[in-house]
Amino acid sequence: MTEMNANGITIEYETHGEADNPALILIRGLGTQLIHWPQAMLARLVLAGFFVVIFDNRDVGLSTKFDAAGAPDLADLMARGGRGEDIDVPYTLDDMAGDVIGLMDGLNIDRAHIAGISMGGMMAQVLAAKHGGRLRSMAAIMTHSGNPDLPQGDPDVRAALMNTPDDPDDREAAVEAIVASGKALSGSGYPTPDKDRRAMAERTYDRCYCPEGRIRQRAAVVKSGNRVEMLRTITVPSQVIHGTNDLLLHISGAEDIAANIPNAEYHAIVGMGHETPASLSTNLSDLIANFANRADGR
């Protein structure tokens, strides 16, 4: 285990590759842990010449939990947010973006390439807009602009993402819920064998199962709202990647990000859903690495 105190919390992280190489920080999505990055993807990014940093976001994995804040009422937050009311949440995406800057400071990284998926892609948007001087490039992957006028994801898939057993100490029920949500997010072009999916679900539960943390992270996303105006201020070299089989976040949200960040590149991956299976490692890592190298003039 490797941890550091940063931005007022403890962050669990791992590094891969040579520290003298350009840094590339990968940011996970809602409720997922650093162990969800495929090893083949990390190895390919290291081979491409990057110092790769992965970490557990706050409220997940082995990083600091905000249990004292309790679990927000998401339905109430979403309703009030939809009416334009100000809502109180335990922390915001800006706070979570600050964790990345704190991690960079602790590792003596002046500037880094950033690639985030889903909620992590929203954090990447915040980083590019508000901490652009610390970024070499930004990749927003399987994520959304927050524009409320765009189509939303499949409601059944959104429900599956947040599904938890009545008793969080029931390991088997929790593992089954993790497996079911993963299958709902899967894309037809990049499958995960059932045995591998279950093995990862068991590893996820045993390392840290914190369903209330996932709710607090979701509350931060709700608080973030519509980021379109913020996106228009980004000057960091940016690319947007989305899957044609993503049922959780509608592809129009990714198109909206690309349309509102000046000179952003956009890539739609046929058959990609809303997860990072090992079968996607080559395709996804090459898109990230090639863009980052171009941003660096390499």
Task: Walk me through the structure.
With 298 residues, this protein is of the alpha/beta class. The chain has one domain: 3-Layer(aba) Sandwich (Rossmann fold), CATH 3.40.50.1820. An eight-stranded mixed β-sheet has the order 1-2-4-3-5-6-7-8, sandwiched between helices. It is globular, with a radius of gyration of 18 Å. The two termini are 33 Å apart. The model has no long low-confidence stretch (mean pLDDT 96).
Helix content: 40-55%
Main beta-sheet strand count, sense and barrel state? 8 strands, mixed
Shape: globular
CATH superfamily: Alpha/Beta hydrolase fold, catalytic domain
Number of domains: 1
Task: Give the oligomer, counting copies of the same chain as homo and different chains as hetero.
Answer: single chain
Mean pLDDT: 96
Instruction: Give the number of helices.
Output: 11
**Structural class based on helices, strands and sheet pairing:** alpha/beta
Q: Segments where pLDDT lies below 50 for 5+ residues? A: none
Spatial strand arrangement across the major sheet: 1-2-4-3-5-6-7-8
End-to-end Cα distance, whole Å, is 33 Å
CATH class designation: Alpha Beta
Give the total of beta strands.
8
Indicate the CATH architecture. Answer: 3-Layer(aba) Sandwich
